[in-house]
Amino acid sequence: MKINKWTLGLAAAGVVSLGSVAQAEEASEHLMTAVSGTQISGYVSTSASWMVGSGRPAAAGGFVGRSFHDNAQKQDGFNLDAIDLTVSKSLDEGEWAAGYKGELWFGSDASAFAGSSTGVNTSEVVIRQAYVELRAPVGNGIDFKVGVFDTIIGYELTNHDANPNFGRSYGWGIEPTTHTGILASYKVTDFLSISAGVANNGVNSNQIGGGTGAGFGKAGVESDKSYMAGFVLTAPEDMGFISGATLSFGVVDTTVSSTAVAANKSDIINWYAGLALPLPIEGWSVGIAYDYRGQSNDNGITAANYANATALYLSAAVTEKLKINVRADYTSATDGTYYVTAPVNDDARNELFALTTTLDYSLWENVISRLEFRWDTALTGGGAAVSRVFGGGPAAGGNTDKNAMTVALNLIYKF
Length: 415
Prior knowledge:
Layout: H1 5-12, H2 18-35, E1 39-51, E2 77-89, E3 98-106, E4 125-136, E5 142-150, H3 170-173, E6 178-189, E7 192-200, E8 225-234, E9 246-257, E10 265-278, E11 284-295, E12 305-317, E13 322-334, E14 349-361, E15 367-378, E16 403-414
Antiparallel strand pairs: 1-2, 1-16, 2-3, 3-4, 4-5, 5-6, 6-7, 7-8, 8-9, 9-10, 10-11, 11-12, 12-13, 13-14, 14-15, 15-16
């Protein structure tokens, strides 16, 4: 222990004790060791969205995938999407490494997680992720996340700055987003990683800890849980231009007891497969994703239903600063998932197609600036005297279109 002459003088005068000085220094060293490697990061995402034409949907369902949180109030105006604040410490190379992540969201998109049992339960402040990360020296090392973490399935990620487009795909809309539980990941080889976990059955509600009623998470039936597993294949560096390409597969299976009769259970299953592939042209890549969500009948309380979605992605670097990202979406689902067809019949189903083009131009340092145009069209349903897909019909104050077009500007500052 090294003590300067001023501290020695105070100790000699009886003002302080050398023991307390030693304890303070040890505490300071422990604190510095604990926070060493801690990083603070995040972003601020803002947007302006305009629905072309005079119509406006009466329900959020009319804007499937238009933004992170499909809300009619976000259309035809300016928005603060989210302020993301993350404090984290990544695992190091040690055999018994430990780390953590705490992520908060502020803003209108936080309301998609509203109702979560976080203790911070307002509509525009929410805990997005919070987990302890641990490594056990078994084989190549098993990494664990314990707490609240993002789902293992999906081509697109929850954070706004991590996707090629501002608006979301149909597939993203039928996936779970957040789990509260434990996830184990293992790197089998340089090209194969696997993961598996168990969590509360928050279904697609994205609520931390699951829901609050019977059959949801901690408050429901003990056996009602979500089980997940997946793998990722990564092309090694010696495979030429396709090095870094990834093939992903995952499944999340959730058991849900009816809120009315706990003995009536249904099963919700999500399947996902995705491929991301670089092209021989520098800065160009393609991707394809497939999602399926199905729910079984729970003795007549909830009818069996399904939804599946396919998306094709193209990303092209036109210049050093300009990138064009294009996505084509198709989804088909049980009638009533997105809208109600007319006339209703046993063979009726919902079908939507969308084409999204995003211009991403890097003009300012640390800023993602993108202009996006999206066109959606309903391939089934609608009629002159009934509510159509995009809007609630004239009686509801909406339009009667089977098409919807949106122009959006998105600015994200990353720190």
